[in-house]
Amino acid sequence: MRKVKSLKDLDQWRDDILLKQKRYEMTVSVCGGTGCHAYGCKKVRDQFAKGIKNNLMDKKIRLRFTGCRGFCERGPIVTIQPHGIFYQKVQEKDVPIILSETIGKGKVLENLLYEDTSTKRKISSEREVSFYKLQNRLLLGNNGLLDPAKIEDYIGIGGYQALAKALFEMEPEQIIDEVKASGLRGRGGAGFPTGQKWNDCRHAQGSPKYIICNCDEGDPGAYMDRSLLEGNPHSILEGMIIGAYAIGGSHGYIYVRHEYPLACQNGEIAIIQARKAGLLGKNILGSGFDFDVEIAKGGGAFVCGESTALVASIEGRVGEPRSKQVHTVNRGLWGKPTNLNNVETWANVPLIIERGSQWFSSIGNEKSKGTKIFSLVGKVKNTGLVEVPMGITLKEIIYDIGGGPQDGRKIKAVQTGGPSGGCIPASLFDLPVDFDSLTQVGSMMGSGGMIVMDEGTCMVDVARYFVHFLEEESCGKCLPCREGLKRMGQILDRITEGEGDEESLALLEELSEVVADTSLCGLGKTAPNPVLSALRYFRPEFEAHIHQKRCPAGVCTSLIQYVISEACTGCGACAKICPTQAIVGEKKQVHRIVAERCSKCGSCKDVCKVEAVMVQ
Amino acid sequence: MERKTVQITIDGRLLEVEQGSTILEAGRQFGIHIPTMCYMEHLSPYGGCRICVVEISQNGGKPFIDTACTYEVREGLVIQTQTPRIIRARKMLAELLVASAPNVKIAQDIAARMGLLKVRFPMEDNRCVLCGLCIRMCYEQMDGRALGFVGRGTGRKISMPFQVRPDTCRLCRGCDYVCPGMVVPCQGVKEPGELCGRCIRLEEMPNCCTEGTFGCFCDPNPI
User: Fold this and answer.
1) Which domains occur in chain A, in start order?
2) Using 50, 70 and 90 to split pLDDT, how confident is the model at B182?
């Protein structure tokens, strides 16, 4: 590895890398994101490597194992440059064909192309795919262009240029002013202005000052922070170094949960490479500025995403929050001024410095600038990570990018912000997605989870799920969060079991408000949001559970019954799969479910080809 | 040495209080009652029970809720200890507390003081209210470091390391001394789920500490 000692060295290195890259005629990128790993992308990559080597093409073709490309629904994803061919759902067996046909003869393989969900047209280039069309992939876009384990790739696409600009052309105050002017707000969820935080930390008394990157993402169904750290760790490092220079920090931590092994590994590799290259450590780029970063692994507690609990965890104490009268910018890690930002916030910093605050603030709407990554999951056709400009409507995200509902059902609501957020009903889908609008309707931006729900989702069940999740993740320090959430869970359990009474909802509401008012940290303060928003928009569903003892969505097992209609052809598939042998009937005759034996698992409904099994 | 003071307003009264003190300390100094459970003088404030919540506003800003035991006074703070929002919150907290540990005297006392006579949650019978006083007593006053919290959320409890008494424990019984759960169980309760309301029904019921034997260090007015 080259040691970069000055700005000239960095430019020289970049020129050398670009020259070297030009020698390749083609680049094959295999997505190595977490989603694609689950689909077996490693085997696909190994097949490519073997095939390229066997065909003696390794001088001509470069194989790249990239970070997450976002379109996780269709993994493993393979792109071939410079043709711009986009293959989806590539399996091991497809690799030899791709090598011989596409790479050898330049032929596009129809069966691996993405088929548009509405027009049924085959699409060969990534840009044309409806999932990507409306996105503005400032941060995620680079994931497809580089191998996260190679610093050369990042330097090649212009990496660390913003750092050079910050170190040699700007004063720390200037950087803070630039970040302030850009309107960047903390992507962790609350949306605190980043420039303001930096300014407060810069002027806080005490030294050394610490810089922390919060990658303790733990919301169910959200994985954007880990994907950034896995796919482009150098951009986060670059942001942190710039931030440290502006604030006057000398030591940094990236707090990752150990359940994210790939994020830990890629972060670690990036730090070692940056250190060797002279981009971290003493006298960065010959500027005289010293800063180093290390990875701090967390045990995977949801509450450690809270700044004071995170700081306690790094210090080696139990991850519990403390009273926040004195903020972490004044008294944080080891009692010293500490600036903590989310992964995505840090990744935005190099962009702002390089392209200027004016460019950045031109994206987004009045009070929320830039783009935001959401993990779009649930009952939509195209799930994955989407990066959209702030101010885009929920409708556009769900219907245009997400492709609308799966299997023809109507979309009922979207849950944003994870367990701290709320459910937004379909009637409000014209809402622009930004920090303030979401808060206004009783949800929040959160770290960016977006779970789409259709008519088959019971809102009481959703509220119950989130409350139980938080009950388990609560640290237990304060009474309202520990006891209050437990009681809320019990009330919701009773409602879903059909034992709720007139008082249940009033008590649930009163309890929710008190838990939100009096809890110690953000976890408890926002914990009632899913319940309160569900009550606000879907009260009739709660009432149906209580008064009519009926679950309108057919989810709550205590309130439903499976029955077989006359449409049954007597194929016997249901009887075969039933784990409790509750289905009886002669062959080719209408079958029957014995209610006493039925465990309501729903397997019969899933296997029935004529849709004769119904929920009552 | 000259002591610095700041001016704050509690419940409409302009007070001059010592800088560095908490709202709770300042209030008590002037006889303003703020109920507490996990607080004890000479131990560090913990902010766990949240019973001492008050409404605070700064520079005419929107009032927010925080605990009086952890919040340090600053010049110009305006504090309300008895707003409807606070009373509702305290009542609910008392209800949660007493539902979880009905046989701990301090829980019954707080409930009675809040005027609660009904609990809407299923009763449990925990003997520990997780106030953490024993841990702080052991750590801060006795230098024992023998106790700590283990587990998370509803599984949280107090334990010695790996459930074994470490050598640092000198059996001083400081933990027993401060524990609100070590007070002899309230005698007023007859039916499960009933609240005794002892403090407001004094003549009907004998003092629950008359039979106090082991570990009973009941303060006649602990809150």
Assistant:
1) 17-129 (3.40.30.10), 151-361 (3.40.50.11540), 371-454 (3.10.20.600), 459-547 (1.20.1440.230), 561-615 (3.30.70.20)
2) low
Residue of chain A nearest B45, judged by CA positions: A323
C-alpha–C-alpha distance, residues A32 and A396, integer Å = 28
Give chain B positions within 8 Å (CB) of A479.
48-51, 93, 96-97, 130
- For chain B, helix (H) and strand (E) counts, in that order, are 5, 7
Cβ distance B48 to A507 less than 8 Å, yes or no, reads no
Distance from CA of A466 to the nearest CA of B (A): 15
CA distances from A287 to A7, A154, A165, A167, A277 (A): 9, 21, 11, 7, 14
pLDDT at B223 (0 to 100): 36
Report which DSSP code applies to A372: E
- Most A CBs within 10 A among B39, B49, B50, B67, hence the mutation to make, goes to B50
pLDDT, average across residues B173-184: 75
Burial A405-424 (b: 16+ CB within 10 A, else e): bbeeeebbbbbbbbbbbbbb
3-state helix/strand/coil string of A143-196: HHHCCCCCHHHHHHCCCCHHHHHHHHHCCHHHHHHHHHHHCCECCCCCCCEHHH
Residue A479 to residue B67, Cβ atoms within 8 A = no
- B156–A479 C-beta distance less than 8 A: no
Search chain B and give the residue with CA nearest A517.
Answer: B65
3-state secondary structure of A246: helix
The backbone torsions φ and ψ at residue A18, rounded to the nearest 5 degrees and listed phi first, read: -65, -40
The torsion angle over the Cα atoms of residues A58, A61, A62 and A64, rounded to 10 degrees, is -110
CA angle B142, B148, B150 (to 5 degrees): 170
Surface-to-core class of residue B105, CB atoms within 10 Å of its CB (0-12 exposed, 13-18 middle, 19+ buried): buried
Q: Residue A526: which region, alpha, beta or left (left: phi > 0; alpha: psi -120 to 50)?
A: alpha
What secondary structure does DSSP assign to A382-444, as a single string? S-EEEEEETT-BHHIIIIIIS-SBGGGPPEEEEEESGGGSEEEEGGGTT-B-SHHHHHHTT--
Amino acid at B209: C
Give the mean pLDDT of chain B: 82
Residue of B126, B153, B156, B53 whose CA lies nearest to A489: B153
pLDDT at site B174: 83
A224-231 vs A343-355: helix crossing angle, rounded to 10 = 60
Distance from CA of A614 to the nearest CA of B (A): 36
Contact A341/A185 with Cβ under 8 angstroms?
A: no
Two tokens, residue A435: 């920090």
In chain B, the domains with their CATH numbers are 5-82 (3.10.20.740), 84-127+180-223 (no CATH), 133-169 (no CATH)
- ipTM of the assembly? 0.85
Average pLDDT over residues B105-122: 88
Contact A379, A553 (CB under 8 A): no
